[in-house]
Write a structure and sequence with these properties.
CATH architecture of the largest domain in chain A: 3-Layer(bba) Sandwich
Shape of chain A: globular
CATH architecture of chain B: Roll
Shape of chain B: globular
Largest interface: A-B, 54 and 44 residues
Distance between the termini of chain A: 37 Å
Number of strands of chain A: 21
Number of strands of chain B: 7
Number of helices of chain A: 16
Radius of gyration of chain A: 23 Å
Structural class of chain A: alpha/beta
Order of helices and strands of chain B: EEHEEEEE
Helix content of chain A: 25-40%
Strand order of the largest sheet of chain B: 2-1-7-5-6
Strand content of chain B: 25-35%
Structural class of chain B: mainly beta
CATH superfamily of chain B: 2Fe-2S iron-sulphur cluster binding domain, sarcosine oxidase, alpha subunit, N-terminal domain
CATH class of chain B: Alpha Beta
CATH class of the largest domain in chain A: Alpha Beta
Number of domains of chain B: 1
Radius of gyration of chain B: 13 Å
CATH topology of chain B: Ubiquitin-like (UB roll)
Oligomer: heterodimer
């Protein structure tokens, strides 16, 4: 690791927040690099189609193309297919040492690449929360966001006859997309009721375009005769080798119904991806309405760690529309803190971004609130249900660990290996924490998993590189 | 599964051949391996502890679609299909 280039600003994650942050910083003259693990920037919401694919235009694709074009013009260095697995420097230095530039280790083309940056803007986005139920591990059961990506980015249907279940606006967006793509939607089961949806109306009215799209989706489902069940949840998935049917039940009632299908798309909202801020030991707080544990941010997207910023859903779920403005604010704050922007220029530049963020975040926050699942969902997980798929840990084993005295999610990990597999708790963490919270009196008490390296699995080959034991300089042994 | 799971009205590159457990399959070049396997009717990608493995998140998070691709471990949802690619359970 000799003579690294030190960037002024490194942006991690190329979704709407990251693209806007990198473009803003680079446009203002900062030496900027953006890293993303996909082949093109866009993130999940504006995910680019693979090279050579021509997809029909829609509002999301246009918004994504506009941000990609702005990023390309800005002069930011864009490093795609870079999977960041390590972060260091910054506050992670021996006690008493002065802070160092952030160090970023990424996996690229089978080798590891190391970069350094004075300021770091994390735009890691969110991941889907799944509260498990029997049969959720059957092939044919996939995430709501997964099905959306499959359709939007690949043009592939998850199945021919699909049940869509869970929480949030994605239910209806996906169901409408499935119908348009030629699939049959057997049912939509929404955790929320019509009353819950109506309560979001004041915020949605600030975004008439979004509201109109949502109403359009609902109208299409009605026209095609798709049953939409409010306050319903998927309680069981059944099948042999693959999914064959799903049982749906009302949240407050007992009448279950079986629906034959070859795909179930399910998601219980979004949870901010905080592994990097946890690793860098930034201060966090629990905010159920924002999706769970979130880094504590000031109004300019600064974390508690100097020169570390978070923008987009990774700082609390507020949706794609609010993300670019938060990315711009983070970039402006970084330039200000690096001394590259005067206080006056900063005040002028952030005014518009703040207004934009506020307006978009109203509807985003209302949607995030709608997507936060009731704790009762975790309460009904049967004991034999697998919670952690990587390590095969069941709800019963988690309960046993809690009965044995595990006092937070970190101890649960030590007792059961729950969350220690290759996904590092990204799939099971929310469900496991809900189970811990039930015993310990809430998510704050259950705590948050300590951030650990590596952030993503790394092949040992990539770490070793061309290293050979024979190359280790061994001093000659001292004479006896 | 009779009709194709691939949605119409999308311009796709020409199909290429790849193999899954030695079986020759076809998919447009560049399609994600996870999508290509799904479209070919392959849903069960292996056996995990206590449960089967299948593509779940499609965004590189869950590690459930981890396969051995041309000898190296890779997440099928992040690997584009190319001619001659060889995939098998991890």
């Amino acid at each position: 690791m000799t003579c690294l280039t030190i960037y002024d600003v490194a942006v991690l994650g190329g979704g709407p927040a990251g693209m806007a942050a990198a473009a803003e910083a680079a446009r203002r003259g900062a030496r900027t690099v953006l890293l993303d693990e996909n082949t093109r920037p866009g993130g999940q919401v504006y995910r680019a189609a693979p090279h050579g694919f021509r997809m029909p235009a829609d509002p999301d694709r246009r918004a994504g193309e506009a941000l990609r074009a702005e990023l390309a013009r800005s002069g930011a260095e864009v490093r795609t297919e870079h999977c960041v697995w390590g972060l260091g420097g910054g506050p992670l230095v021996p006690e008493g040492s002065p802070p160092e530039p952030f160090r970023i280790d990424a996996l690229h083309a089978g080798a590891t690449v190391t970069l350094a940056a004075r300021a770091l803007i994390l735009c890691a986005g969110a991941q889907e929360r799944i509260i498990p139920f029997p049969g959720w591990t059957l092939p044919g059961v996939i995430g709501l966001a997964a099905a959306t990506i499959l359709l939007k980015a690949q043009g592939v249907l998850p199945g021919r006859r699909v049940v869509v279940a869970g929480a949030g606006p994605l239910l209806y967006a996906l169901a409408a997309k499935l119908l348009a793509g030629g699939a049959e939607v057997a049912a939509v089961a929404d955790l929320a009721t019509r009353v819950d949806w109506a309560s979001t109306l004041p915020q949605l009215l600030l975004r008439p375009g979004l509201l109109a799209r949502g109403l359009g989706w609902r109208a299409e489902l009605l026209r095609r005769g798709v049953p939409v069940l409010g306050a319903h949840t998927a309680v069981r998935a059944e099948g042999g080798d693959v999914l064959e049917r799903v049982w749906l039940a009302p949240l407050y009632g007992v009448r279950e119904r079986a629906i034959a299908c070859d795909a179930l798309c399910i998601g219980h909202g979004l949870a901010p991806a905080t592994e990097a801020t946890r690793l860098l030991r930034a201060e966090h707080r629990y905010d159920r309405a924002a999706g769970g544990w979130v880094p504590v941010l000031d109004s300019d997207q600064r974390t508690s760690v100097p020169l570390l910023y978070v923008a987009g859903d990774g700082g609390g779920v507020r949706g794609a529309a609010a993300a670019p403005a938060s990315g711009r604010l983070a970039a402006l704050a970084a330039l200000r803190d690096l001394g590259r922007l005067s206080a006056r220029a900063h005040a002028i530049a952030r005014w518009r971004a703040r207004a934009e963020r506020w307006r978009a975040a109203q509807a985003g926050a209302a949607m995030a609130r709608l997507m936060s699942p009731p704790p009762s969902l975790a309460a009904v997980i049967p004991p034999e249900t697998v919670i952690c798929r990587c390590e095969g840990v069941t709800a019963a084993e988690i309960e046993a660990a809690l009965a044995d005295g595990a006092t937070d999610v970190n101890q649960l990990k030590h007792f059961t290996r729950c969350g220690m597999g290759p996904c590092q708790g990204r799939l099971c963490g929310e469900a496991a924490a809900e189970l811990v919270a039930r015993r310990l009196g809430g998510r704050e008490a259950a705590g948050v998993a300590t951030g650990r390296l590596p952030l993503r699995p790394v092949p040992v080959d990539a770490l070793l590189g061309t290293f050979d034991y024979a190359d280790i300089p061994v001093p000659p042994p001292a004479p006896i | 599964m009779s009709a194709s799971l691939r949605v119409g009205g999308i311009g796709r590159p020409a199909d290429v051949e790849f193999t899954w457990q030695g079986r020759v399959l076809r998919a447009p070049a560049g399609e994600s391996l996870a999508a290509a396997l799904l479209a070919a009717g392959v849903r069960r990608l292996g056996e995990g502890p206590g449960a089967p493995r299948a593509a779940f998140c499609m965004m590189g998070t869950c590690q459930q679609c981890l396969l051995r691709v041309d000898g190296a471990l890779a997440q099928a949802c992040l690997v584009p299909v190319r001619a001659g690619l060889r995939a098998e359970p991890a």
